[in-house]
Amino acid sequence: MPDPAPKPFSFPLRVYWEDTDAGGIVFYANYLKYFERARTEWLRSLGHEQERLRVETGVMFVVTDTAVSYRSPARLDDLLDVTVHVKHAGLAQMTIAQQAWRSNAQGKTLLAQGTIRIACVNAGTFRPQRVPISITSSLNKNNE
Amino acid sequence: MPDPAPKPFSFPLRVYWEDTDAGGIVFYANYLKYFERARTEWLRSLGHEQERLRVETGVMFVVTDTAVSYRSPARLDDLLDVTVHVKHAGLAQMTIAQQAWRSNAQGKTLLAQGTIRIACVNAGTFRPQRVPISITSSLNKNNE
Amino acid sequence: MPDPAPKPFSFPLRVYWEDTDAGGIVFYANYLKYFERARTEWLRSLGHEQERLRVETGVMFVVTDTAVSYRSPARLDDLLDVTVHVKHAGLAQMTIAQQAWRSNAQGKTLLAQGTIRIACVNAGTFRPQRVPISITSSLNKNNE
Amino acid sequence: MPDPAPKPFSFPLRVYWEDTDAGGIVFYANYLKYFERARTEWLRSLGHEQERLRVETGVMFVVTDTAVSYRSPARLDDLLDVTVHVKHAGLAQMTIAQQAWRSNAQGKTLLAQGTIRIACVNAGTFRPQRVPISITSSLNKNNE
User: Fold this and answer.
1) B23 at interface of C, judged by CB pairs closer than 8 A
2) Domain B9-130, what fold?
3) DSSP code for D19
4) So what's the pLDDT on residue D142?
């Protein structure tokens, strides 16, 4: 019998004053920050630190495309879970699907979801580079 | 002979330290802020202030969808121009196309472009509302 | 024999891309955000949520004065600890001393320290209010 | 008869959604950003661009101390003026006094004021450096 689909990586984070706007809710642009924190922790969970990667290999990841749909507002003190799911991993880029959820006594609510495209580049010239083999291989292991 | 296409609204802004990240370039999430500043100034150029709108009519605009493509990095001290073009104006929502450009001695460079979908909502309940007639009519005048 | 001085409240947080600037380090203004996150979690550890406080009592805390000294730069991926120590608790305001530290293989480094003065105000009028008794009493318990 | 005191440098800026928080007002940490924008434009008015300075001389300015007092809240759409006044210019550091004002039909209101201490450092090592002579001399000219 096949294994059930693996649970996507999920990262918890809290909404602070800095995240909100005068509408009383999380400022929509901040979901891009939340998604990025989750991707960073997902990479860390696979053994990769981006600052070390840059220093050791001279490559870094840059975001080339973002598409986000904002479904329901989050408010101060809300506790969110942000998921990371690799949709496509290419030689020099990756496409990641992400969602932000709130779970509380009223149930589970999808707040925002999006697709983030990331390219691997030379940290000095911003020219495309192959994703380091160490990362590619840990992605493959993670998907087995 | 028909008029040439009208020039889109354009808003100039400067890149400061607060906008950059450790890659030495503008942090990609900040283009959503730049686009928002330009939309705010475009509405103001049509005679509408959002804070007054909220107080007087109880409605506000919320962003429901953003799709942005990041083409070329901007750096500290760069002077950008951000354009606003209404792609679609509905009863309770609008779709806006926006671009961020840098013009300098090396020529004109497209840095980022995107599509922002905005909904008109009740400022208390976040339920959809019709776009106030004062705004609809100024959009129509602007497009004639 | 008297108890040893109690350990100050400490909150861990990670440095992400959003926190850095083109100097390659954490943008100094962000330490105010870090300090605020730690104060929020300190209040939560005492049983107080600010959003609930505002809804239930109509009061909120506003920052009236900040003094911060930046000692050593933090970088992407650094893991920090931010401390909270109540220097003075008055009827309608509090003064909090805070520090941000980095602990790693090279030892423990003080990155920034500051003093934050907070006033309790009516959330609608911004007029000074007495700190709710529930908070005052939990501060006293915490200091016993 | 001596000249009257020179008018301090003043930089206008607008409050956008990104600047506000759930209290309905400008998030206090953002005054550090406003002060920085004004200092950057003040340096530019004297002929100095920081990015060019870093590339050409290898030095940059870092903020070492900030003390800010928040007097009155600013709101969405407010138009502010931020002033810059050099209190002290040393060999490797400067102390700048700054204020943020709002002028509207109700008169002129002081929103925040602060003192920012800035050090000149090597952009790679963060070690103290003398302020470039080109800047020192333009400060002196400006104060004559």
Assistant:
1) yes
2) Thiol Ester Dehydrase; Chain A (3.10.129)
3) G
4) 63
